[in-house]
Structures are given as C-alpha cells and as structure tokens.
Amino acid sequence: MSLAIAGRIARRELRGGLKGFRVFLACLALGVGAIAAIGSVRESIRGGLDREGAVILGGDAALQLTYRFADTDERAWINASAEAVSEMVDFRSLAVFRSGEVAERGLTQVKGVDSAYPLYGAVTLDPVMPLEAALGITNAVPGAVMDPVLIARLGMKVGETFRLGEQDFRLTAALIREPDSAASGFALGPRTLVRTAALENSGLIQPGTLFETEYKLRLTEGVDLDALRLEAKGKITGARWRDKRNGAPGIAEFVDRLGSFLVLVGLAGLAVGGVGVSSAVRAYLSEKTEVIATLKTLGAESRTIFLSYFIQIGVLTVLGVTLGLILGAIVPIFFAPLIEARLPVPAAVTLYPMPLVEAGIYGVLAALIFTIWPLAQTEDVRAATLFRDAGGAGQGWPRWRWIGLTLFLFVLLVALAAQFSGLGGLTVWSAFGLAVSFIVLVGAAWAVRLIARRLASARALRGRSAVRLALGSVGGPGGEAVSVVLSLGLGLTVLAAVGQIDANLRGAIARDLPEIAPSFFMVDIQPGQLDAFTDGLEANPAVSKVQSAPMLRGIITKINDRPASEVAGDHWVLQGDRGVTYSAEAPEDAVVTHGAWWPSDYTGPPQVSFATEEALEMGISLGDDITVNILGRDITAEVTGLREVDFSTAGIGFIMSMNPSALQGAPHSHIATVYAETEAEGAILRDVSNTYPNITAIRVKDAIERVSEVLAGIAAAITYGALATLVTGGIVLIGAAAAGVRARTYEAAILKTVGASRRTILTSFALRSALLGVAAGSVAIVAGGLAGWAVMTFVMDTDFIFEPVSALLIVIGGVIATLVAGLAFAWGPLAARPAQVLRARE
Amino acid sequence: MTEAILSLKDATLSLDGNAGRVAILKGITLDIGRGETVGLVGPSGSGKSSLLMLMGGLERASSGSVVALGHDLTSLGEDALARFRRGHMGVVFQSFHLIPTMTALENVATPLELAGVHDAFERARAELEAVGLGNRVDHYPAQMSGGEQQRVALARAAAPRPDILLADEPTGNLDGITGQAIMDLLFGLRDRYGATLVLVTHAPELAERCDRVIRLQDGTLSSDEHAKAAE
Prior knowledge:
The structure holds two protein chains of two kinds.
Chain A: H1 2-14, H2 22-51, H3 53-57, E1 61-66, H4 72-81, E2 84-99, E3 102-113, E4 124-126, H5 131-135, E5 137-138, E6 141-146, H6 148-154, E7 161-164, E8 167-177, E9 191-195, E10 212-218, H7 225-235, E11 240-243, H8 249-287, H9 289-297, H10 302-334, H11 336-342, H12 353-376, H13 400-421, H14 424-456, H15 465-475, H16 481-512, E12 520-525, H17 530-538, E13 543-559, E14 562-563, H18 564-568, E15 578-582, E16 591-595, E17 607-611, H19 612-618, E18 625-630, E19 633-644, E20 656-658, H20 660-663, E21 669-676, H21 681-691, E22 696-699, H22 700-739, H23 741-753, H24 758-795, H25 804-824, H26 827-831, H27 834-840
Parallel strand pairs in A: 3-9, 6-8, 15-20, 17-19
Antiparallel strand pairs in A: 1-10, 1-11, 2-3, 2-7, 2-10, 4-8, 5-6, 6-9, 7-8, 12-21, 12-22, 13-14, 13-15, 13-18, 13-21, 16-19, 17-20, 18-19
Chain B: E1 4-17, E2 20-33, E3 37-41, H1 48-55, E4 63-68, E5 71-72, H2 78-88, E6 89-92, H3 104-114, H4 120-130, H5 146-158, E7 164-168, H6 176-193, E8 196-200, H7 204-207, E9 212-217, E10 220-225
Parallel strand pairs in B: 3-8, 3-9, 6-7, 7-8
Antiparallel strand pairs in B: 1-2, 1-4, 4-5, 9-10
C-alpha cells in the first residue's frame, strides 16, 4: 500500500525536473563511466590477446631453448609434430655503424629467422617490401631490418652498412611491426632482424654464449595442445612450452594487474563522486523539508516518505549509472584507433558486457552507500517544522539500522571489488585507506569549523571584517565546509597518493642504485678471451675495477627429486632460467651464512652454494638436492652452503654457484662488470667492440634508462586513471559552489545593506574558499603520503621517500581549484541587487 | 518642517517582470524632515516597500532623484551606497534577514566593524542587552524565535546610531504581543537616538504612532497627513 502511494508521490515530485540533480548525475555517470571504460579497455586487450594468440606467439605453439639449438633428434620430432616450423635465435649484441672515422654503437636485441618466418601475421617494413627481399644477400652482404629507434640512434640511413660481431649487414628497411614482438617480453635493446644463416660468420653464436632459440610450430587444426606439451617435455629436455591459448602470458598478467589497479583508482573516483551525490541528495531533501512536513501533516508515515524519496533517488541512480555505462562503453570504441596505436599488443575493442556489469554494480552500491544516510534523515522531519524550526532533513544521526545497512553495503562493495580485481589485499587496504581518509577529512572539516568559529570571535580579528566574515561563514551552521573539504580532500588525497607513487616509481631506479655502480656489463666473453680482456681493461687508468665470473644458464627442475614447483610454488627463481656460476674458492666479498664452501681442489659430486634469502623463501636448506637443467643436461647438486647475495649493488650476483668440476666441462662464456670513469665509457666501449666483436657491452646507464621508461609508462597510466578522480572532484567542487550561490547571494545582499563594499564581500568569499582548500590540501598531503608509503612499501616492495614538490603542488592546486570554483560563482551574488534578493525572501 | 533629511523628486521605479516591464513607482516627490517618524501605508502592491528600498539606496530609481543627507543616491555606485548606509542608515525587514552563519553578537557587530568602530563587539553586546538579549549573544539565528531574531535585527540596525531608520513591516511575521514589544523597542530606539524613522506597515495602530502618515496607491502618493489620525 505505502509503496504504491510512495510511487505516486515520487512520480509527482519528479515532474519538477532534474535541475537540482545535474551534479548527482554527472558524478555518478563519470565515476561509473571511468570504471567501465578502464574495464572495457582491459577486456579489449584480453580479447585481442586471445584472438591473436597465434600471431602474438608467432605459432600455435612455441618451444624455447636456452644456449643451444635443438639437436637432430629433437628437430626431427618437432618437424614431425607440426605442419610447419620456424626456427629463430635471439640474443643481445652491439650494432656498430661506421661513418668515416666515427663509429656509433648501439645495444640491440638480434633475432635470426629462417625463411619460414613469420608463420602467422606479417612483418611491416618501411619502405614496404617483402621480408624475403629485405633479408636477402646483395653483393655478398646480407640484408637486415632494424627498429627505427635504433636506426636513429646510430644515425644510419637505409642502404648503409653496419656490423654485428664480425659480420657486415646492409640496412634495407625500418622494422615497423614485428607480429610476435609482444611474446618476446622486456628487451634492453631495440630489435634487429636478420637471417640466422647470415650470422654464421659473425662469431656471435658460439658454444657458451648467451642466446635463446625458439621453434614456432604451426599445427594441424584440432591438435591436443596439452598432449603435445607433455610429449614435448619428454622429448626435449629443458624446453619451455608456450601455446596460442596464452601467447604472451607476461603481458596478459601485466595488463590484468594494471587494469585492476586502475579500477581501484576508479573506485576512489567514485567515492569522490559519492560525496557529490550525497551533497546533492542532502540539498534536495533540505529543500523538501516543508513538503515532507506537509505530507506528515496529511498523514503520511515515515516509511511512505522514505520510500517516496528512495524511489526518486533510485530512478536518478539508474539514470546516472546508465549514462555512465553508455559513456564507458562508447569512449573506448570511439578512441579505438588511438588506443590500438598506443598499445604494443593487439586490442579487440568492442562492447564487453562484463566490465559494464562490474561498473554498474559499483555505481549502484556507491549511490546507495552515499544516499541512504540523508534519505534516512527524512524520518526525523517532524510535522511541526511547518510551524516552527523543529529540525529539517539533514540533521542529526540516522537510526542504527540505516547506519548498519550503509556499513554492510560498503563491506559488500569492497568484497566485490576484491573479487573482481583479484587484488584482494590491495583492495581491502585501499578501502581501508579511503575509509580512514574519509573519517579524517570529516574530522578535519569539523576541526576547521571549530577553529574558524573560535577565530571568528577572536579579539585579534575584530575590525578585520572580511576575514571575520569568511571565518564566520566557514564555522557557522549550514556551511559548505564538510562537503567541500570531503570532496576536495578525497580527490586531492587520491592525487597526492598517485603523485607520491609516480615520483617514487620514477625515482626508484636512480635512488636505489648503489653509489658506485658498474659502467658496463660485458657478456659473451669466451674463455680464451678472458685474460687478455681483463688485463687490457685493468691497464686502463680510467678503469677502477673489473670483476668477472663464468656464466651458464639453467632451469631448476627438481628439488629433492620432486618437481621444483611442488616445493617452492611459483617463486621467481623458478620462472625461466637463471644464471649459474662456478668458483673454486668463495669470492672475496661472499658472506657464507650457513654451511661452508667446498675445498678449492674439490672434484667430488656436484655441490651448490645457494643465495640465503631465496633459499629460505623456497624452503631449501643444507643437504637438499637441487637439479638444474643446463644445456639440456640435468645436473643434481647438494646444497652445502648458503651465502648472502646482494642484488642491489648492481654487481655480479648469482643465485647458484657450483664447484668448478660440476660445470667446467660445459661450454660457457664469462660475464664481467667494469667500473670506470664516466668520461672514459665511450672509449672503453669502442676499444672492446673493436677488439672483441663477439662481446656485448651493456651500458648500465642505458639499461637504467630503458627500465625507467617502462616504469614511467606505468606511472603515466596510473596518472591517467586518476584524472577521472580529478574531474569528478572538480564537478563536486563546482556543484558545491553552485549550491552555495543562493546562500551567498542572500549573504551578500544583507552585507551590502549593512554597509559592506563588494571588495569586502569578494575578499571574504575568496578567503573562505582558500581556507577550505588549505584544509583539504593539508589532510590530502598526509593521507596521500601515507597511501603512497603503503603502496611503495607493501606492493612495490621498495623504499618510500616523501616527495615535497608534488605534495606542495597538490595543496596549491587545491587552493586554486576551490578559489576558482568559489569565485566563478561569486559574480552573481555580488552583482545581485539587495532589494530584489531580500524581497524574494519576504 | 525641519530641514529635509530625505528628499525624493519625481522618483520612478520600473522593474522587469515575467509579463514585461512593470512600473512600480510613478513619480514620487516628497521631503522627510530630520527626526520625523513617517508611516508608509497602502494596500499590498502599492509600492510601499519599493519606496522604502529607494530611500535606503537598496533599489535604484529608474528616473528622478533620491537625496539623503545631501547625497544624491541615484548617482552613487553599489559600493558608495554601501559605504553611505554604513554611517547613516539602519534597515529592519519583515523577515529579519540575519546572516545565518553568524551569531547574534556577530550579526550586530558586523555593521560596526564595517564602519571601522574599534569596540564593535562591546557596543554590539550592549546593544543586544538593550533589546533584552544579553543572554543570547552566542546563539545563531536558527536557534532563536522570530521575535528574538527581529530584536537582533533591530539591535543591528540601531547599533551604528544611524540618522535614518527604515523598517519594512517589522512586525509582519510576528504575533500581536511580540509585534507590540518590537514596535515599543523600535520607537524607544528612535526616541533615544533621535533618528528619522520611516516605517512601512499595514497596521493602523502602528501608523497612528507616527508623526506623519503617507498613503500610497498604485505607485503614487494618494495622501500625506501630518496629523496623528490615520487608517
């Protein structure tokens, strides 16, 4: 019964139009739209990765080997299992371009391919030409194509010749798109693509040098991929299997995690919008106090009135959420070409229902959480309000059941977000952080009001009418202090947190670098070259230290004869292959924490010294047997020692070091770190690459720059995600300023009547805006700083350094934003004629 | 009549309404002497309140002149008008028009502060005590009854000791007894400080208390009586 009546009342009230609900609708639509858009883009990338799985991988399945090519038997099995096979080899090298006396050198990730490449997709070259023609031999010089970034770095032009190791190549085109580039993962150097056969005389692929081979398979339709994977595991030892179902697992996981993190940032935006939603409902209901009192006078029960306004707000919520979903669905499709161009992976941009459902649920729950409180306060409006001020809507606390329901909905929202994002811990902590910020901001707003109220009557401020007017209005009843400080403060908190994370991410590498980092990592030093190489560098006065170690790569396959993953789960040491070294004696700086180093003349069964921290994490202890597959051969060694390995020094650090007799027989090369004066780096690079074309020098500065670029990209994505929050915060702020226009117009009229000049009134308006901005900004710095610290410490696992510049900018931004919003809406009140304003109130 | 403190010559006021431009006042000419108490009476819509607003410089005459204390209000800008009111005029409204974000004390102190009075708060407190609200100085308007709010408004208008007190139906929103008390206060203030009082009212018994009663009809003066007999 009451529902029907409530519905009828709601319908009649809604006939008044949506004028007072523009901020409500904008906040909800924007918050939901941002989350839906982020979710849609994430889904598009997932879709693209799924659809193009074979192209991204470069085959229906791929087998990767470290350090070696497949032997004849293995290759025969591969050929027999697939319709077509493409073999490729991948390694780092230096490309050297000589122009007269000057030689430019650039680190490059070389990929040698056969004529079957690519099995899927196509290589795009500039100028346009078939890959076959581009890589062909002309005048005994093989062709090569190169990433335009590297071409520019070397200052080369198409048609000119460069060198890889001891082999000349002619640059025939720029490599615009490599279909399977996403599957290759992170690379320090831009790509150079050549024929594998052309590398034969380069001296770059020798036993023991660091290279990987990959066999891409085109399979007949309907082949059981799992069965084939099992078979491959038995046939080819140490091979890593990937197939088209998850062509670029690293990227897929990265996109998922970043997407989920951005959805959390979006939720923070929705919380900011929630403040706007709540303010709009409060303002609406406060205007309806007389209507509510009248309805009560006429016999309406509290329940009927609550339902009537609940229905009205419900209708508006559905409208706002729908608008947001339309926005979130359309924007990615509209910007599809732009999104696709910016992504390194294909994206299937289309309409995805799941992200919309997720965003819709968040929107409805957020709207409920932020509107139940003011709606519940309608119960306390008394009919007597019509005759005297007996308490309107928006005063006092609602009944406990409503507070309980709000808390329940909040917990439900957090639980759903945790479920949807798959980032349970981060979601709960984010929600906790937001809730704490919320409470702190409300507290801050009350504190500001209290202080302003006290200051307004302070003796020292008597006579300073503009200041006192501002303080009086901030501290007085019915002011906008709480809603402005809350909305602006929450928005600024998110921005401050993002600012701190951004600055820390960007600075992390530079900051965490040890003071004396090596200038170069040199890889692929052949055993025969080591002594001459070391002696030559040590003779150079600009070189302060050269450290070298033998280097092999291997995959830990078993621990105590059980599959390694059963013992140590998905620990990072088990992800892919790891460097392994050997040494007769403990290195000078080694700190053996458990057990002992083998005698220097030890030749017995293999022994291994493992990194202490990783061993403890993986549950490995002294006496355990570890099986490492190196070059297809399983070597089982007993853990006889644990030692500290400090990776933060950027020096040589190996998880595993074995006794020499265990590994010496296997073909291997050496790596070296070279510590030199910065000015001498160019000359060292030139000398080494001239003397030893097969040795690849990786300049530490360049590597850091490349990693920094990736981190900066992530930081930028997070900042874009926070933009939605900023825009929502702006709308809430404008909403609050707009909602205050009536009160300010009235105030200005009275002030003019008692003799205040427009300057005094304007100064007072500006001061109150600035006061609220400073309050919100100050809380945001502390709360955002804490959030930044938590993310860096617990999520990124790195040190946090408070970044004062961005923090200060946030406060200044906050003050300017409130000032602009406040003053933009001050002209109306200032211009209004007092007589008209006051008469309208008679 | 003593020297004219307020002088209107052929003053008109037209305002834009929904149905187009409406002539509210149609050529008002009158002089009000220093210390006079003047009742403005007339039916609703006759222009009483508009005339009062014109006298206070709260509304600008469309034509003609409004001279107060020798200043032509029609030639002054918004801020000059505000500054003029500071020292010379006090206005009381039917709906009190207190600043809701200020306490009673702050409301009364504001015009004094704006006028640069150094002991604004002490004087405001004394003013509130004079209207019987010494115990409500820290209360906000919303915490007071209508009668109390109007007493605050009276204290605020009287505090700067204005030459002219303008009152627009000050008892219109109050019950009879409270209204009577407010009028006693208003006339008491006027008697104590010797200000000129212009009072818009519908109540004959209030008009009767004035030295002079001016009747308006449809935006023009229909009578101007110096006797104590009125409607």
